[in-house]
Design a protein that fits this description.
7-stranded antiparallel β-sheet, 36% helix, binds 2-(butylsulfanyl)adenosine
């Protein structure tokens, strides 16, 4: 018995140093040897001490989670989304306190709230938050968490609150061999704790970080008087904590929040928590129904969310390509309510196993519409049907690669309207006052069917369109007239040639200098332009073969794309320049400055690159430039060059 007690004490101490302090005292081999000795003794004597580490392996599966009533209500946190709002909260607190107030700053851990009860120094039970008063008993699951103490110095009754997390390193390790990889760490922990089989929980290698003493009676009999003392008490009782900072100055707190780089942490956080440090002041401030008035979460913008996919609809774009769009149960993401998300194409749906009715992960991407990443939970999901006919015009569809297309170029309304919208947009003909709604009305009411029809619109016709009053009509007609003096690059862009975007359109204008020359170009001469490859060249040739007459039609309308030689004599005159790394202005702006001063911006370093502008953290492009002996300048030299 005394050897067993000794082993339990030793093993728990070693585990504490290893899992909580991150400072191992012995090797894994030595630990395993002692552990095996204890396990053998327990088997022989048929006794397992209450804080024996062998209790952590996860016992038999439970049939259901029993209810657990918390000794004291578990509150949630109120939240603010901006520093102005956080400062306003600080002002309110200071006013109520009638003095300066000290705050603590902690991470807002993004996991699962857990509440652990200890009696007479031993771990007794663990529960989820539930509705704050009653949670579910998850003692068997939480027992598998190696970093929680099974025995503590405090001998009274104690309920402590913390966040169950799965470390990102543990998630990566788990996913290396998992049959079903976990989508993210939050799901990793929630699924593990709410799994009836503790052996599954044990495999996830969870951790719990503690931030609150929810109830304390007896033991040392001391009252905690501040959050700092509370954290100290938790540490002294071997719980893992993560308190960051203490200050009376909200702007210092805000600086500290700004300095947090959440990408460097090994766990997920979705914000920071600011708490009044002094418990006497906390008592004075009290609680609302759900929240303490003395604590506030500052929420980072969410980048990922989970919601239900209600339906998938197919949208037809200006090129006839069908894009699936997921209709979602509304969910908050990046400060907006999101109801739709893109799925790219049918291949994407199949690869991600997307089902209608399933719960899906969505993530903010650079685009306005978020993307559906994959399935979180598949309830009674049903397959997404592949359309055979166009949802807009009923034409039979065809597949090309991973995409589905409608062939009805001239008779399919969204294709026609999409082309007109693109034609009118900035960087193309720049015709003002035409929203997608207006274009639809021009289509429905005035029978506009092609971009050239825009040049035949008159006052009388336009007055039939909703929202077109005298002023708007004259502005619109003036804008259409002005567009006839379009720049060549914009005009090429406006044609909507597949695979030709704004940048390529500019390059084409620069090389061919007139629309006739471009329309007559063969693939060979197109390929001579840097950045034009086989696909783009093929697209251009095919476009003019099919739509050759359009150039004539535009000319007859008086549209006369003009080409202006770029200013010569700038500091980058004739130079091919590559930008890489972080520079002190947006890339677009830098590229514009270089081009205005006679240079040409390339995306990759090649034999004929003349100059590389390398900002901070430049990587492979800088290396390649060094190898090829290309001239390299840094951000400061770039700035002095453009100011010279
Ligand atoms: S304090 C009365 N501190 O965030 C004390 N909560 O959105 C209330 N959370 O329910 C909680 N990190 O699960 C507190 N450092 C932290 C926290 C934290 C994460 C969780 C907690 C709470 C939820 C509110």
């Amino acid at each position: 018995m005394s050897r067993m007690e000794e082993l339990v004490e030793q093993l728990n101490r070693y585990a504490y140093h290893y899992y909580v302090l991150d400072n191992p005292l012995i090797s894994d081999g030595q630990y395993d040897k002692l552990y095996d000795e204890l396990a053998a003794l327990e088997k022989a004597e048929n006794i397992v001490l209450p804080s024996s580490p062998t209790r952590r392996i996860g016992g038999e599966p439970v049939r259901e989670f029993a209810e657990h009533k918390h000794l004291h209500k578990l509150y949630s946190l109120d939240k603010r989304n901006s520093f102005e709002e956080l400062s306003a909260w600080d002002e309110k607190i200071k006013k109520a306190a009638e003095r300066e107030v000290e705050y603590t700053l902690e991470y807002k851990l993004d996991g699962l709230t857990l509440c652990l009860t200890y009696e007479d120094g031993f771990f007794r039970c663990a529960s989820t938050r539930g509705n704050g008063t009653v949670g579910e008993d998850v003692t068997a699951q939480v027992s598998t968490v190696k970093s929680i103490p099974l025995e503590i110095p405090f001998k009274g009754v104690l309920e402590v609150q913390g966040e169950g997390i799965m470390r990102l390193s543990a998630l990566r390790e788990y996913n290396k061999t998992a049959k079903e990889p976990l989508k993210n760490a939050r799901n990793g922990v929630a699924g593990a704790i709410r799994n009836l089989d503790p052996k599954v929980t044990a495999q996830r290698k969870l951790d719990i970080i503690f931030y609150n003493v929810n109830y304390k009676r007896g033991g040392d009999g001391k009252l905690l008087s501040s959050q700092s003392e509370c954290i100290e008490f938790l540490r002294a009782n071997r719980f893992k904590t993560e308190m960051l900072f203490c200050s009376e100055n909200m702007s210092e707190i805000i600086d500290k929040i700004n300095a947090v780089d959440k990408n460097r942490l090994d766990f997920l956080i979705d914000g920071m928590v600011v708490k009044v440090n002094d418990f006497a002041l906390r008592d004075k401030l009290g609680y609302t129904d759900k929240f303490p008035r003395w604590a506030m979460a500052y929420k980072f913008e969410a980048e990922e969310a989970v919601t239900k996919l209600k339906d998938v609809v197919w949208q037809v774009g200006r090129t006839g390509k069908l894009t699936p769009l997921g209709k979602l149960e509304p969910v908050e993401l990046c400060g907006a309510t999101i109801q739709k998300a893109t799925l790219n194409n049918y291949g994407d749906i199949r690869r991600k196993g997307i089902k209608i009715g399933a719960t899906v992960f969505i993530r903010r991407s650079n685009d306005v519409i978020p993307e559906i990443l994959g399935i979180a939970e598949e309830l009674d999901g049903k397959d997404v049907p592949v359309p055979e006919t166009c949802p807009a015009c009923g034409a039979e569809l065809y597949e090309n690669g991973a995409h589905i297309f409608c062939p009805n170029e001239y008779g399919c309304k969204p294709q026609v309207c999409g082309r007109i919208e693109h034609f009118c947009s900035k960087g193309c003909m720049d015709i003002d006052g035409v929203s997608d709604k207006t274009i639809e009305r021009l289509y429905d009411t005035l029978g506009v069917r092609s971009v050239t029809d825009l040049y035949f619109l008159d006052e009388e016709g336009l007055s039939k369109i909703d929202g077109f009053k005298e002023k708007k009509i004259s502005n619109f007609l003036a804008s259409v007239e002005n567009s006839k003096q379009v720049k060549l690059g914009n005009f090429i862009n406006a044609l909507g040639i597949p695979n030709v975007g704004r940048k390529t359109a500019e390059d084409l204008a620069e090389s061919f200098k007139s629309i006739d020359a471009l329309a007559a170009a063969d693939a060979q001469s197109l390929l001579e332009i840097d950045e034009v490859g086989e696909i783009v060249a093929g697209s251009i040739v095919a476009f003019f073969e099919k739509h050759g007459e359009i150039v004539e039609r535009f000319k007859n309308l008086g549209i006369n794309p003009r080409f202006e030689e770029r200013n010569v004599g700038g500091v980058f005159d004739g130079l091919k320049v590559v930008l890489t790394g972080k520079i002190s202005m947006p890339r677009d702006a830098a590229a514009k400055i270089i081009e205005e001063r006679g240079g040409k911006v390339q995306s990759a370093v090649t034999q004929d690159t003349d100059l590389v502008i390398a900002g901070e953290d430049a990587g492979s492009k800088l290396e390649k430039a060094r190898k090829l002996g290309v001239k390299i300048i840094d951000d400061n030299e770039f700035k002095s060059l453009i100011n010279s």
